[in-house]
Amino acid sequence: MVEVNEIRFEQDIETALTKYGGWQSEKFQDTNFDKTIGLDLDKLIAFIETTQPKQWERYKKIYKEDSRRKFLKRFEEEVQMHGMLHVLRNSIRDRGVSLKVAYFKPVSGLNYELQKKYEANQFTCTRQFSYSPNNLNTIDMVLMLNGVPIVALELKNQYTGQSVENAKVQFQQDRDPKELVFQFNKRFLVYFAVDHYEVFMTTRLAGKKTYFLPFNEGTNGPGNVGGKGNPENIEGYPTAYLWEQVLHRDNVMDIIQHFMNLEVKKEKKGDREITKKTLIFPRYHQLDVVRKLLADVKEHGSGENYLIQHSAGSGKSNSIAWLAYHLASIHDDDNNPIFSSTIIVTDRTVLDRQLQNTITSFDHTTGQVETIDDKKTSQDLRQAINDGKKIIITTLQKFPVIYQEVDSSKARSFAVIVDEAHSSQTGNSAQKLKAALADKEATLEEYQEIEEGIESTTLDDQDELVKTLLAQGRHNNLSFFAFTATPKEKTIEMFGTKQADGSFAPFHVYSMRQAIEEGFILDVLKNYMTYKTSYRIAKEIEDNPELPKTEAVRAIARYQSFHPWVLRQKTEVMVEQFRVVTKKAIGGSAKAMVVTPSRLHAVRYMKDFKLYIQEKGYQDLDVLVAFSGSIHDDGTDYTESGMNISKDGKRIKESKLKEAFHTEDFNILIVAEKYQTGFDEPLLHTMFIDKKLSGVKAVQTLSRLNRTMEGKKDTFILDFVNTEEEILKSFQPFYEETTLDSEININLVYDTQSKLRKYNIYNQDDVDQVLNLVKQAQKRQDERLLGRISSLFKPIVQRYEELTKDVQYEFRVTLRNFGKWYNYISQLDRTFDMELLKESIFTNYLLKFVPKEQREKVDITDKVKLEYYKLQKDFEGEIMLVAESTESGVLTNPKEINAIIKPPEERNSLEEIIHRINERFPGDFTEGDKVLIETLYKSFKDEPDLKVVNMAKNNSSEMFEKNLFKSIFQDKVLEKYAQNQNAFGKLVGSDENYYNTVYSLVAKDLYKWFRAQA
Predict the structure, then answer these.
(1) Strand, coil or helix: 445
(2) What pTM was computed for the model?
């Protein structure tokens, strides 16, 4: 008969822990655990006596027979002040005596004394642990370190009709967080709720508010594509990884020493500043990726690249911090450190404070952390590298300045962790990073074997070309660890792992799908709404000029997008949707972002939002705007800080905008490019999109909404521009695993080079002459050298200008492609092709001299008008991503590099262009969709009434709009209604809101126009 009771489950776990996990079984009645102090003090003091006899003797001499009580008192003081995690990691200090509560495994196996003390730790496993002096409750299983309870497990058995959910409820309802052992960071560091199929974890008991995180491998195992849960285990329980791997004593000690972290955040609630403490315990995929990376580095040493595709919500900052800390102390089999320095490279100018704080919180016996933030210079970075700092955090932009100044990297290896890896890693800054850190002497030896005639292994300091060649490709002294949720083709090939079939895949995956299913991020495509925009343009002039078709269509689209009526209609939709949907979310604290296509759109929207909110008298809404630089509009210069005003009337500095948006004072943030990536505001619930988005940009922008927080159950997106099909196409490749079909054909760069030469714009003599002058500049640049280089390009540019327009276009694209592909390919492989390098340097200069395409500007001011406009809901519902779709995540490398020949610019009559635009919306309109503001505005402007002109010139805009102009406008509307009842029926009908909107726009524009007249 099979035993199926809960005791059997306990026994099986205990057997594994004691037989293979390094723990000793101890019955509770055999311990000296004192429930009133939450410790087995005898065991703890016995450990100290064994491992630190001299210190304990000295302690006893100070306190004599009171030593035990004094020690307990000092222990409690340290725990109260710093927390149990700190006490376990560090010594207790009392009157000059330092006493360790635990010893950790030494990094190097050569430290026999420390290894011996580590083995002296008392690792005990106790079932049915009675913890309380107030009741007889027991915990199913407790792991103690030197008499200190550190891990609690509640076990549930499906055979008895219970699951992990019952274990969670038991922690929430039957474990009083006021009990000493359950107080935050005072005894237990982590609590596990476990059944046969799933594991959940928390580090803080808070009654019904206790928040459990999943601690599962994923349905296809750790590091692989899958959903929530665990795979089947033919060798035993699906959750056996917990006690067979994670809770092995060496792993528990490593987690305490090198992973767990006390995160301290200060938050403002009203006028109060609240300190929020969180004990971070790594999630399973974080432990797994760090350990797998370390194992691979241990096996292969430096010189390998790794791509880690971890979704938003994966805890990337902590994963990077833990990886950096471990890489800084990893040793090879001969106990030599593998890396001289670990360098964390981020694209963010203001470095992630969480990242810095996490790393610096660990016990730094291995070295120090150097942060080269926005307050430090490239020279500080150079000094940190040359000084051999163990962990350096910096931005990619610092490397171009210092790449020539880093000391020789011979016999020095570097681990480079790339935060948010993407295609910028193929650019100039990334090349300079390699040039700074590469072991160029080792590469020179490789170069010698290929290029005969180089006799010395000493670099010629003047030969920058050789230095550049040596920095290309992969290097045995550089390992890259690239983290991203949305890898592009180049990123996958540069950092990914090559498969047997020639494709490339990430080294480790924690997918968007798994993050959503586990509840770490929200599915932003669950509540998606799209609006269809229809409009009809009418010609406003007698003439019918011929115009360049593409530019004219662009100009009309721009005219339509900036039209006051269009902006007003969209503003109204957004504000009212915010009030209906967003205002009710997250307990009334939800916020929205408006994504605009340009800075000018952002400025116009800001003015429209402010005006509409004021007109409607909404007291519970306010808006901020984010854009860079200054925008000139309608005679005024606008800046972000100038438009953002706090409740007390002060300007909000750019650096304080995020903080201001987080407060209760503001609900909506209008953005142009800024805050579409890297912006983390959990209260952000809604996004209004008025910008074309695709691919990675779409995923990154919409993912601003996916952060979870208490009370946030969903998100909402309203999109004026993109269709559901387009958004699905953007998201699907990144839903699970993103792979690359094949490596780039490196010889394509030679094909492009050959194609460039066939245009006969330049020849080898041109290249050689320019490069000779460039090399001279490396020694000394006189006052004529730059001019001589420019003169060499003059006949080349003249030959280019003799080409037809379409051939010029093809040449420019081919020229850009050559530079782009050379930069990319040189990162992947060292060709040691000096001639190719020279050509790339030459073409980079040439690209600067080649005239850019001159677009004919089209001014459609007063040529067209918006006759009809309709905004209607097109789609509402969930955009469904497909799980386990093997093809959707495969990206493709180009198989050829060809410029697509641009057809010559067609010219059409304005009438024909308007006809083509209007053809897109056949039969979409009724007379009720007629845009009346221009008709009314024009009727006042074409036949100006002197009385109205004087009203405008002699009164404030408020007086003109609120009082003087009202009756005059009403008379004009009634006059127009008599002429065209269908068009003006809505204006004189029952829709007061519509009437007020038309009136407001006409009044404002007329006031400005009349005031501007002489």
Answers:
(1) helix
(2) 0.86
